[in-house]
Hints:
By secondary structure, the chain is of the alpha/beta class.
Amino acid sequence: MTDESIEYYNRNADRYIHDTVEADMGAHYPRFERHLPPGGRVLDAGCGSGRDSLHFLRQGYQVEAFDASREMVRRCADLTGLPVRLARFEDVAYDEPFDGIWACASLLHVRKPEMAAVLGRLASLLTDGGVFFLSYKYGDQDYTKEGRTFTCYTEASFADLLRHIPALSLLDLYITGDVRPGREHERWLSVIVGKGSEQT
């Protein structure tokens, strides 16, 4: 994740949280949670406002969260009461494995040449049979906007990426519109992958 992308969130925390904290993710949570054991361990990777961490806490999961932006770490901690970590995808580490990793609209700031290594590192934090939700802007062209780098995928390009990460296998892939008002025309690629061969 680039320093410029991180600093965007430090500078624009109020605007970003206003635009995202109330976004309705109800179409996505059940598709992820059906693979989780009751009360399982969930990692919110690139947690942003803490919206999703709060949801998982309310569902009875054991939640850990991290973000590379110090402002997002502070806001997530304020919202959830969690001891949120300041960390990048490239260097995050935990002592206990997770049943699920949730990376909603966060990995899209990792450049394509680093993506396989980052996904492999995150996969190493999963239990065998654990699951991993991730979402990207849908498309073939990566781009930069207001200092943030956006890495985009289609069904085909994500399939190519997954071939380089043998620990992960595809469980679910679907395309949706943006849930934020006025941005419904923007499309997202959402993916659930599993580690090992024991996914439910």
